[in-house]
Amino acid sequence: MVDNKNFNEKQLKDKIKSYNRQRIGIAIPIVIITAILLLFPSLGNEALPTRFAVLCSALLILSSLLFVLPGRNAVLLFFMATAIVTVQFVYKQIHPQSFVILILINSCTLLISGKITHNFIRAAIHEIETLSHLEIEATTDNLTQILNRNGLEQALPTAWAFCKRKKKNVGFLLIDVDYFKSYNDTLGHLKGDDILKQIAHSMKICFKRETDIIGRIGGDEFLIFLQDIDNDHIVEMAQNLLSSLSSLKVKACPGSYKCLSVSIGIETGIPQTGDSLKEFYNRADMALYHAKKSGRNCISYDNVIIKNPNERVWQNESSALKNLVAECARK
Description:
alpha+beta, Alpha-Beta Plaits, 66% helix, 10 helices, 6 strands
């Protein structure tokens, strides 16, 4: 939230600078012409101080109309113009009536400048927020509120390039919901959508570092990109995800397992000069295929199948229960 606020403030400052730069080309000839018209006819006579004071106020008015002046800058220009008029009045170079009129003009200009700046900033903030909202919509999956394919295509290359440059270990996790078609077919698409939301929520809980990139590739397939983390921790986090999904107690549709489950393929390593993002993705995809082929509800990492910890507990409990029933039957 803070980073987003800072980013918006930076965009606003950049907009103001860009707007003011564009007006400089218009301002310079206007200032030159105004100075010539006001000062040239009075060169060498006693009207020069008065005309110079008027020029200062005119420049203040022009600056306020042509540029967006943040509060501090507007007040600074006001005090500079007013100080010049005041000094000339103290030395009796301008009449009291002229002094009062110029002070009033400068004060009104300061108020108008504040109003112009306020309106510009309000319009700019609205534009920035609108563009930011559209960008979020374009990169976020509507259903799960994590990155969509477009968002992943924008985020992954940057993170990958950083890890390659800094020699950081990365982890690719490809995740596929087991027997998801059965949920849609038997429970309906609305319940299927709700399951995808729960899975995405579990992912955000398990992978909550700011650098963790979580996205929905499409359908019931997800991708998680981890950076600057050791391999053991990556596997541990993947196991936590399996456990958290089991704890949701979503009853499995016809299949092999008691509760909702996923299969996970993991690929890790420090990107080398010749390595590409696509190669790591393809290896994670092969690992995912290995996990699905090996019975699902498990993790495939480095050609080793790692079972769901909750599933092992449940199987042990089931075996213990069967043994107890058999023992009772024998008695």
